Amino acid sequence: MFTIKQPPNIVYGKNSASEYNFPKNSLLITSSGAKNRNWFSYINFEPSLIYDQVEPNPSIETVNKIIEIFQKKDFTTVVGLGGGSVLDVAKYVAYKLKKQKILIPTNFGSGSEVTRISVLKVNGLKKSFHDDQLFADVAIVDSNFAEIMNTETLKNSVIDACAQCTEAYDSKLSNPYTKFLCSTAFDILEDAILNKNPEKLALGSMISGLGFGNSSTTFGHALSYVFSNEGISHGHALAFTTIAAHNFNKSQFYLRFKNLVKVLNFEKISINQNLDNASELILSDRKHLDNNPLEVSKNDIIDILKQINNQNSV
Ligand SMILES: [Zn+2]
Asked: C or N terminus of the chain, fewer CB within 10 Å?
């Protein structure tokens, strides 16, 4: 038995955000770059309330601060406009305040607009919250935003989407529907990278979100958080931790994923933390590891962290 869950409305396509009719009575949540990038005029929307200070890798304190500022104001809808960090904050705020959610990704990789997951820092460490009430009411995926992403953001985002769909394909929670979505997503993303096609990036990332959102990411993601805790971005960490995980799991995607990391030309990563402590922390991430196709031991993790630290090139 399996269940498929996704947002009730997904609007996909070029210009979809600029043509959407937003409810005026909204709180728009975004990051400080939104104004300079002319996003407000692009989506053609003047909300009654704006919060534009969401930071990268946001913490639960940001959510609490927004709730404190706006909870007594009159609005029906939270509109999240930004990257994964902004969407994770917007959906959590809306969930806590029981408002309608409209999510518009401006970079493509997290798939946050179509998942029931919000990743927020708690006590300095990333934690992922999973709840059906975190689903958007409307997800608007406008590929025009993909064309203005800078190279570094694009690299980190697209490899995240590739890690998500390939890990999820192999996940114990996968089913024929998610496998179909995940392998289709990977084909599209691979083509987007090799042929430099930003529009396909938006499509691949959305389908990856629908696929992994209905199954789960696994070992590659579990391994990545100790690197992120030392300041390496999520996608950059996954470029190497997901290769290692695919190798361990003997995933059918190992070589194709490795090739994309090479094409995108990621810099090596390493971890400074004591490997014994890091592996304990990784091993405690049961949400990811229980869904991994193979069982993982503490020694396996230490070996992999050593390999990542010692590698010279991909
Ligand atoms: Zn991810």
From this structure: N
Q: Is 194 exposed, middle or buried (0-12, 13-18, 19+ CB in 10 A)?
A: exposed
Question: pTM here?
Answer: 0.92
Res 312: pLDDT? 54
Locate the domains of the chain by residue range: 10-148, 151-310
- Find the 228 Cα to ligand 1 centroid distance in Å: 11
Q: Where are the alpha helices (DSSP H) in the chain?
A: 39-43, 60-70, 84-97, 151-170, 176-194, 198-213, 219-228, 234-249, 254-264, 275-283, 286-289, 298-310
The Å distance, Cα 138 to ligand 1 centre, comes to 21
Mind spelling out the 3-state secondary structure of 68-92? HHHCCCCCCEEEEEECHHHHHHHHH
CATH 3.40.50.1970 is right for the domain spanning 10-148: yes
**pLDDT at site 125:** 83
Q: Given this structure, which CATH class describes domain 151-310?
A: mainly alpha
State the distance from the centre of ligand 1 to the C-alpha of 185, rounded, in angstroms. 14
Gap from CA of 44 to ligand 1 centroid (Å): 30
The parts of the chain modelled with pLDDT lower than 70 are 312-314
d(CA 73, ligand 1 centre) in Å: 33
- What pLDDT, on the 0 to 100 scale, is given for residue 314? 46
Query: Cα of 34 to ligand 1 centre, how many Å?
Result: 23
State the chain's maximal CA–CA distance in angstroms.
56
Contact (Cβ atoms closer than 8 angstroms) between residue 59 and residue 229: no
Q: Which amino acid is at 182?
A: C
Query: Both tokens of residue 277?
Result: 């402590």
Q: Measured in angstroms, how far is the CA atom of residue 21 from the centroid of ligand 1?
A: 30
What pLDDT score does 279 carry?
A: 97
- Write the pLDDT tens digit of every residue in 142-185: 999 987 777 888 899 999 999 999 999 999 999 999 999 999 99
User: Residue 282 Cα, ligand 1 centroid: separation in angstroms?
Assistant: 15
How much distance in Å is there from the Cα of 127 to the middle of ligand 1? 12
Q: Per-residue pLDDT tens for 15-27?
A: 999 999 999 899 9
